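Contributing new records

If you add data, match the layout below exactly. Sequence lines come first and carry their own label; structure lines follow with theirs. Keep one chain per record. Anything else will be rejected by the validation script.
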Amino acid sequence: MTSSPSVRAVHASKLHSFSKFTEPAIRLVAGLGVEGDAHAGTTVKHRSRVARNPQAPNLRQVHLLHAELFDELMAAGFAVWPGELGENITTHGVDLLGLPTGTRLHLGDEAIVELTGLRNPCSQIDRFQAGLMAATLAHDADGRLVRKVGVMAIVLQGGTVQAGDAIRIDLPAGKARPLEPV
């Protein structure tokens, strides 16, 4: 991507709702996630995962989604705006899906998150807009499924994040491990 990596928008919701509300700023808390967000915590908070194992570690503290997906979806006839797909941070100029597991993103002056995996789209996407789930999935040249609805991360270092903040990318040392659904 050609532009400098940056935060386009930030979102949070105290409710376990599909979409999140755009905020002027959010505060990331180390080991927990977005302060005041329903998905913050040391153990899983997503309802489907709580039902499976409520003691599992929360590898989905922060959801990041690339703004370029919204452009793609709008071109395909879907009216979808940042925050509506449930992300906490909308990025611009970052190939989130191409980054390996363990990548650290420095957000603004303080916050650091570490990518844990891909968001796995669920049926809530089609309840939001019919046909949207299929539009967020594709296949690569080798026939592998590509999930385009962003990545999940844990908070390593807290801080305030807001639109316009720069993003610095630190790739992990060693052999790159592709992101898998978490």
